[in-house]
Design a protein that fits this description.
This protein is mainly beta and about 260 residues long. Helix content is about 5%, strand content about 40%.
């Protein structure tokens, strides 16, 4: 009887402290499989920064915005962010690849990007970001070189730019230089002021929220590249946004390349 009561007590503790995670899927396109030589088999949503929610020796479940890094055999890691929808009146899909080699200074190696459609990178093999993409499925080999010798390779596939049957209601510019010169100092979203009750959220690549701005209007309520409510400008890099127009339509997401003086 005491043993039975102990089991009930332990069960109650776990039940009280259990965590409930509500699924929140912004983009259902995804992929997965074995990740490098880690022994992990990972499935994910493309274009979502992510956090690990549950894991054990051979599995992990994630949620958020950015897919897990794909690992090479010799230290190369790469991940992708997809702006997933190309409107009918604009070929505006884009893909950003973030890659690095662990334990080695970035000044000592080169990276090559070999896209499944070479034409998306007009300058050859140096495009870590491709834009103006029509709907379709894309893939890329990322190669790490020391000198002219290839040392490691990762392959990222199932990068889906979805098509939309609707014209673009709003559009945005992917570049920011918040240096106070009056040019590209804020994240400009064309026509956003037409959607009262909108909300714009800004994230870094680890899914940390930098800003939540309600009733974004480009003038008084906008993102100036700062961290939270401070006046500190975020470091140069790629940031991500989610726009909720507040009218029940699908969430809009994409990326911003911020260049600061930091």
């Amino acid at each position: 009887m005491k043993f039975f009561l102990l089991i009930l007590f332990v069960f109650s503790i776990f039940k009280i402290n259990a965590q409930t995670v509500t699924p929140y899927v912004i983009n259902s396109a995804g992929g997965g499989g074995l990740v490098g030589t880690t022994g992990y088999e990972v499935y994910y949503n493309i274009g979502e920064p992510c956090i690990t929610t549950i894991s054990n020796a051979s599995n992990m479940i994630t949620q958020g915005f950015l897919q897990p890094d794909i690992l090479g055999k010799f230290g190369l890691t790469a991940s992708a962010f997809v702006s997933p929808t190309s409107c009918i009146d604009n070929t505006d899909g884009s893909i950003v690849i973030t890659a690095n080699v662990s334990g080695i200074s970035s000044a000592s190696y080169n990276l090559g990007y070999f896209w499944n459609l070479p034409s998306v990178c007009p300058t050859g093999t140096n495009c870590s970001t491709v834009s103006n993409l029509p709907p379709g499925t894309y893939s890329v080999y990322v190669v790490y070189y020391l000198g002219s010798i290839s040392k490691d390779t990762v392959f990222i596939n199932n990068l889906v730019v979805e098509g939309s049957a609707e014209p673009c209601q709003i559009s945005f510019y992917n570049g920011m230089t918040p240096n106070g010169d009056g040019l590209n100092d804020v994240f400009f979203i064309k026509n956003i002021e037409q959607f009262k009750g909108n909300t714009v959220e800004i994230f870094n690549r680890w899914g940390q929220n930098l800003a939540i701005i309600k009733d974004y209007d480009n003038l008084n309520n906008n993102w100036k590249g700062t961290i939270g409510s401070s006046n500190e400008i975020a470091p140069s890099g790629t940031y991500f946004f989610i726009i909720n127009l507040g009218n029940g339509s699908k969430l809009i997401k994409g990326w911003i390349e911020l260049t600061s003086s930091k």
